[in-house]
Amino acid sequence: MLTVAGSDSGGGAGIQADLKTMLALGTHGMSVVTAVTAQNSLGVQGAWELPAEAVRAQYRSVVDDIGVQAVKTGMLASPELVECVAELLAGTEAPVVVDPVGVSKHGDSLLAASALDSVRTKLLPTATVATPNLDEVAQLTGVQVETEDGMRRAAAAVLAFGPRWVVIKGGHLRADEGHLRDGSGAGASSDSSGGSGSDSGAGGAVPGGSAEAVDLLTDGTEEHWLRAPRHDNRHTHGTGCTLASAIAAHLAKGQSVPEAVRAAKEYVTGAIAAGFALGGGIGPVDHGWRFRATAESDSPPTRP
Fold first, then answer.
1. Active site residue: 150, 204, 240, 283, which one?
2. Is 265 assigned a catalytic role?
């Protein structure tokens, strides 16, 4: 497994979240660092992108020797890095999950406006699965999503750029919006496993948000609506990175895209539920929640 993304010094998102997810799901994680951030639970205090030649050298070093069974991309920062990574991915025969990271959990920009066209025309066409949240959908396509039906329009707009599948993460949908239910539309199906992977309020508490976290996975023909109850937990830093990495990990194991996304949702839902306070702001999801759950179930009962 290979992640091509930025570093989060606070350990909740970016490369650090990706590697934790890969380990938790039984894969060997490798990394290409695209940028270094000074970041904590309160926000991003600074970001410094690496030169394209450094990114290219890391990628070739890993892929040419070790090989790779799936790649996940995250923060790419600039047009130069987006185009460099897109060129590398186009020459790699492995599933690619593109998380088109635009802003951080705290609203800090992680992608130059000048890079948006490169994401649309160069990066998204390499994607097996793209995983934008609603803010990123608006940034890339101009489509403002306020209802579940709007998620269909958003998916069509993203798919027009060339990814094979897209997950539209509906973490921002409000409680008063109507829900589409099972069997709505040609080829539609509904799944209930897992929570939303949106970087903002994904499956966690959202003021005015829906009681359900709902996402749409589609290739333009098949539809899979993924629903789960929201967890009342504000500590959701790194959710989008974690979801994309989990999808890539399951693709690396040979699962189909719908199977990989459902399994990733289940993992992310547990990580959100177990998210914990760290620092003075928004804490991270718990990438090791399954390890702890297993350890607790194996422990002998304690006496009162």
1. 240
2. no
